Amino acid sequence: MMTGEKPLHLTVMAHLSHTVQDSAVQKFLEDEKDPLSKQPLLHSNFLKSAEVKEKVLTLVLECHPKDSDIFVSYAKALEGKTIEGIEAIKTVVSTEKITPSLEKRRVPGVKRIIAVASGKGGVGKSTTAVMIARSLEQQGEKVGLLDADIYGPSIPTMLGLRGKKPEVSEHKKLIPLEAFNIKVMSIGFMIPENSAMIWRGPMIQSAFLQLLFEVEWNGVDTLILDLPPGTGDIQLTLAQKIHMDGAVIVSTPQDIALMDARRAVSMFQRVGVPILGMIENMSTFTCPHCQKESHIFDHGQARTEAERLNIPFLAEIPLDIRIRKSLDQGEIEALPHISLFQKSKMEI
User: Fold this and answer.
1) In sequence order, what are the residues at sequence separation of 6 or more whose Cβ sits closer than 8 angstroms to the Cβ of residue 194?
2) Please, what is the Cα angle at 308 between 304 and 309, to 5 degrees?
3) Selection from 72, 75, 89, 80 nearest residue 24 by Cα
4) Please, are residues 129 and 98 in contact by the beta-carbon 8 Å criterion?
5) Sequence-distant (≥ 6) Cβ neighbours of residue 40 within 8 angstroms
């Protein structure tokens, strides 16, 4: 086994075609689970390449430097296993080299940062971010909320701050607006409501970093980041540049959302951000007329996925018209089910 620091790019499986030994290798990679995400190694983001040549299977694994000991031990264990038709298993563990330009920064005036993320849009990530912020505030925390969803900033509407603009302090920094004792900043305060954001990645990253570091967050215990949906370059870069104390993953129960939630979990694990847990949104629907409960998007699958990934399951949020009305009207003091977070296992 060898170790190195040069990141390796994803390559296709080579020489795994129609032979018996090929199907045996694929089964081996399906059965083996990576040590962090617990996903089948064949589908894990930590597996960068797998190649069979002259009856030798070579596996290249890539991980964050802090997880290198875990993966080195895991790789040694893999090398001791056997596969039909394969004479030897060799492994290479590559650690991502974080350059000084990507060293994680802490935000002045903020004790800790919690990211609220999802693998895809439309699962209620911003709704959940607001509910977490409100719940922490009710428990006595001094809370900030940064709407980092550049393409679809919805926090100003949800907190009744539409049309308002932040002022500039004598130190030439933005003063966050306040609603329900929560300090709030959003790109939505800076641009016309109906304007389309057509910025490319570097512009978005620059704007977001300004909203973080050029704002007077003074005295904030917990800053909630409502991240853009997805697991692309923007999310990865932000996770590498900013010191985050943890991430909460939001998903609806159906398989297509959970597939992307797994990618979000894997992304944060690879950059060394602890996963605080997963929340299932739109978990159940109770008819207001007959009181019958329906599982429109399935139910309980996020809990099952969290158990499979060995991360905490925090809460279920129902599909409830009162939540929609409260946030549309910017009246979050009327939000129901907020006690879910107060009773949950989330510890910061």
Assistant:
1) none
2) 120
3) 89
4) no
5) 29, 30, 31, 32, 33
Q: Which residue is listed with tokens 């910017």? A: 330
Q: Are 128 and 252 in contact (CB under 8 A)?
A: no
Cα separation values, 163 from 86, 152, 232, 241, 289, Å: 66, 15, 30, 31, 37
Q: Minimal CA–CA distance to 33: which of 324, 308, 313, 339?
A: 308
Are the CB atoms for 276 and 315 separated by under 8 Å?
A: no
Q: Which amino acid is at 323?
A: I
CA distances from 161 to 185, 329, 331, 339 (A): 10, 10, 10, 24
Angle subtended at Cα 261 by Cα 314 and Cα 59, rounded to the nearest 5 degrees: 120
Tokens found for residue 146: 């940064």
pLDDT score, position 22: 57
- Alpha carbon of 341 to those of 127, 135, 145, 157: distances in Å? 13, 6, 16, 22
The C-alpha angle with vertex 73 and arms to 69 and 74, in degrees rounded to 5, equals 115
Which pLDDT belongs to residue 177?
Answer: 96
DSSP code for 193: T
Q: Could you read off the pLDDT of 153-186 as tens digits, one per residue?
A: 889 999 999 889 999 998 889 999 999 999 999 9
* Residue 53, SS3 per DSSP: strand
C-alpha pair distances (Å), 66 with each of 41, 70, 96, 157: 20, 9, 10, 40
Q: Is the pLDDT of residue 11 over 60?
A: no
Which carries the bigger pLDDT value, residue 206 or residue 247? 247
> What is the Cα–Cα distance from 252 to 166, expressed in whole angstroms?
34
Distance (Å) of CA 36 to CA 90, 99, 107? 20, 23, 28
